[in-house]
């Protein structure tokens, strides 16, 4: 089975490294080109104008693909562990995979439809990506607890749950503040609301 093949553990590390590089490279190019202010711009702002928009879109789409591969490997791993332990229903594992795949589709939408070109589609993609991501990591945290102590340590479960809680807490203000924005714009003047 794929999840027991040697070397498959590099995929999640590649996902994190590639995604980080996507954000950093597009940020550096956007700042050097004068397209964004250097102090904490929105991620989407750093991928709005060429040339960084092409790099951002390409790299985030690769990240979405790596996310799909990572989630599928996790799904297979849980299925294999579940054969002997029966700690979670297979349908729960499948549901978690489907939610994760929705998040990856949302990432692809964010990467493909730039913030200023098609803001409503971009925003829907971001909502799907972040919302599905929060639900996915919460479900994975619950599955991890159910697999203790045979397949996970409680320390790992607590770390996963802490990340889930922080993500849930961060998601709420994101929705609240995003709903208050009536116009998408990169450069704001001091007198504008």
From TrEMBL:
<feature type="domain" description="CWH43-like N-terminal">
    <location>
        <begin position="8"/>
        <end position="184"/>
    </location>
</feature>
<protein>
    <submittedName>
        <fullName>DRAM1 protein</fullName>
    </submittedName>
</protein>
<dbReference type="GO" id="GO:0010506">
    <property type="term" value="P:regulation of autophagy"/>
</dbReference>
<dbReference type="InterPro" id="IPR019402">
    <property type="entry name" value="CWH43_N"/>
</dbReference>
<keyword id="KW-0812">Transmembrane</keyword>
<feature type="transmembrane region" description="Helical">
    <location>
        <begin position="157"/>
        <end position="181"/>
    </location>
</feature>
<dbReference type="GO" id="GO:0005764">
    <property type="term" value="C:lysosome"/>
</dbReference>
<dbReference type="Pfam" id="PF10277">
    <property type="entry name" value="Frag1"/>
</dbReference>
<keyword id="KW-0472">Membrane</keyword>
<comment type="similarity">
    <text>Belongs to the DRAM/TMEM150 family.</text>
</comment>
<keyword id="KW-1133">Transmembrane helix</keyword>
<feature type="transmembrane region" description="Helical">
    <location>
        <begin position="125"/>
        <end position="145"/>
    </location>
</feature>
<feature type="transmembrane region" description="Helical">
    <location>
        <begin position="94"/>
        <end position="113"/>
    </location>
</feature>
<feature type="transmembrane region" description="Helical">
    <location>
        <begin position="7"/>
        <end position="33"/>
    </location>
</feature>
<dbReference type="GO" id="GO:0012505">
    <property type="term" value="C:endomembrane system"/>
</dbReference>
<feature type="transmembrane region" description="Helical">
    <location>
        <begin position="53"/>
        <end position="73"/>
    </location>
</feature>
<dbReference type="InterPro" id="IPR050911">
    <property type="entry name" value="DRAM/TMEM150_Autophagy_Mod"/>
</dbReference>
């Amino acid at each position: 089975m794929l999840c027991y093949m040697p070397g498959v553990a590099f995929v999640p590390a590649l996902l994190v490294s590639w995604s980080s590089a996507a954000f950093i490279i597009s940020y550096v190019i956007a700042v050097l080109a004068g397209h964004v202010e250097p102090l904490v711009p929105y991620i989407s702002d750093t991928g709005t104008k060429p040339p960084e928009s092409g790099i951002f879109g390409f790299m985030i789409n690769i990240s979405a693909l790596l996310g799909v591969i990572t989630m599928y490997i996790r799904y297979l791993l849980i299925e294999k562990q579940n054969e002997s332990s029966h700690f979670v229903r297979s349908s729960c594992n499948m549901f978690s995979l489907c939610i994760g795949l929705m998040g990856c589709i949302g990432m692809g939408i964010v990467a493909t439809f730039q913030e200023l070109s098609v803001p409503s589609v971009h925003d829907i993609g971001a909502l799907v990506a972040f919302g599905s991501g929060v639900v996915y990591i919460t479900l994975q945290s619950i599955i991890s607890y159910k697999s203790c102590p045979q397949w996970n340590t409680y320390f790992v479960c607590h770390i996963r749950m802490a990340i889930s809680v922080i993500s849930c807490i961060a998601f709420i203000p994101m929705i609240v503040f995003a709903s208050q924005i009536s116009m998408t714009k990169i450069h704001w003047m001091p007198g504008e609301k």
